């Protein structure tokens, strides 16, 4: 009886080892794929334009503050107390509006980025899942996430080009040189 149990256990261990050897894994640089997607180019252009517009508004507000402050410094000695107090209040109010603008502009920019890039990320993840299923992979590790310090290329399939194909990204389209570093 004991011998039969040992044989069964050995069989299960052998089957488990064989199953583990049959598991297929893949890896991808998802950040590269997302960067190369057509949708990313247009989303990035929208975000850059919004950022530029906000920066121009901010610069105009700071310029107005600097102008008012310079006038205040030049004229403070000649103004009566009521005018002096009104100008100080005006400068403080403008400083507060600038701070409020910075905060709301950053929040607005972050919301817009999430709104634009969320669907892009979903689309890329769906393509990764489709390639993984089609190739019978158990896991696909994202190397751009930085959580995978080592990949054995001999037993892990690089699915980056397959996902690019799934997303109709030309295989010769590469990251700009400074983005790859």
List keywords for this structure.
mainly alpha, single chain, 3-stranded parallel sheet, disordered N terminus, 181 residues, rod-shaped, 72% helix, 3 strands
Describe the structure.
The relative contact order is 0.18. This protein has 6 helices and 3 strands. With 181 residues, it is mostly helical. The protein has a 3-stranded parallel sheet with strand order 2-1-3.
Strand element count? 3
Using only C-alpha atoms, the radius of gyration works out to 30 Å
Order of helices and strands: HEHHHEEHH
Shape: rod-shaped
Q: Order of strands side by side in the largest beta sheet?
A: 2-1-3
Q: Secondary-structure map with pairings?
A:
Layout: H1 2-22, E1 25-28, H2 30-36, H3 38-75, H4 81-134, E2 139-142, E3 156-158, H5 160-166, H6 177-180
Parallel strand pairs: 1-2, 1-3
Helix pairs in contact: 3-4
Short précis:
The chain is mainly alpha-helical. The protein has 6 helices and 3 strands. Strands 2-1-3 form a 3-stranded parallel sheet.
């Amino acid at each position: 009886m004991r011998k039969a149990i040992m044989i069964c256990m050995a069989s299960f261990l052998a089957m488990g080892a064989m199953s583990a050897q049959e598991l297929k894994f893949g890896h991808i640089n998802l950040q590269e794929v997302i960067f190369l997607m057509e949708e990313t180019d247009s989303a990035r252009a929208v975000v850059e334009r919004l950022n530029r517009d906000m920066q121009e508004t901010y610069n105009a507000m700071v310029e107005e503050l600097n102008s008012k402050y310079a006038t205040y410094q030049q004229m403070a000695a000649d103004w009566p107390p009521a005018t002096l107090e009104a100008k100080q209040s005006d400068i403080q109010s403008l400083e507060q509006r600038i701070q409020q603008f910075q905060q709301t502009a950053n929040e607005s920019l972050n919301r817009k980025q999430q709104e634009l890039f969320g669907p892009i990320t979903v689309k890329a993840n769906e393509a990764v899942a489709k390639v993984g299923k089609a190739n019978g992979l158990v896991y696909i590790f994202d190397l751009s996430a930085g959580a995978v310090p080592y990949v054995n290329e001999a037993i892990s399939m690089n699915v980056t080009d397959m996902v690019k194909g799934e997303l109709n990204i030309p295989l010769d389209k590469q990251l700009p040189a400074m983005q790859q570093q």
